Amino acid sequence: MNVLELSNVTKRFGTFAAVDNISFSVEKGKIVSLLGPSGCGKTTTLRLISGFENVDEGSILFSGKDVVNKRPYERNVGLLFQDYALFPHMTVEQNVAYGMKHRGFEKKLIPNRTNEMLELV
Which segments constitute the ABC transporter domain (predicted)? Predict the structure, then answer.
């Protein structure tokens, strides 16, 4: 089963299509990268998935459920961007754990889960 599926997703800013009819899916347990030059729509795509931007056309499904009309906090998605999105006063580990702490994860499980995520990178 796909944990994430984008179908014909488009996002425009005025007449500029920042994301134009993109479709892809991610199976459970898979690691995926979005690669491309600056300005090609990677960040906009992630913002669409997380709900920080609204989809103009298409659908986004999490485990088969449409989330296009859900708010960011209802999607259970976390993002860490390369620049300017980390808390500079915190360690990398603290930045990774931040979302879990504020999403109600069981406190004793956070260090292990944080280490698991850091092992992936």
Answer: 20-106
pLDDT at 44: 94
Homologous superfamily assigned to 2-69: P-loop containing nucleotide triphosphate hydrolases (3.40.50.300)
Q: Which two tokens stand for residue 13?
A: 């800013």
What is residue 105's predicted lDDT score, i.e. its pLDDT? 85
C-alpha dihedral sign at 104, 34, 119, 86: negative
Grouping H, G, I as helix, E, B as strand and the rest as coil, residue 63 is coil
* Contact partners, residue 42, CB within 8 Å, separation at least 6: 34, 35, 36
Residue matched to tokens 């280490």: 115
Question: Can you tell me the distance from the alpha carbon of 62 to that of 71, in angstroms, rounded to the nearest whole number?
Answer: 13
92 φ/ψ angles, rounded to the nearest 5 degrees: -60, -45
Higher pLDDT, 19 or 88: 19
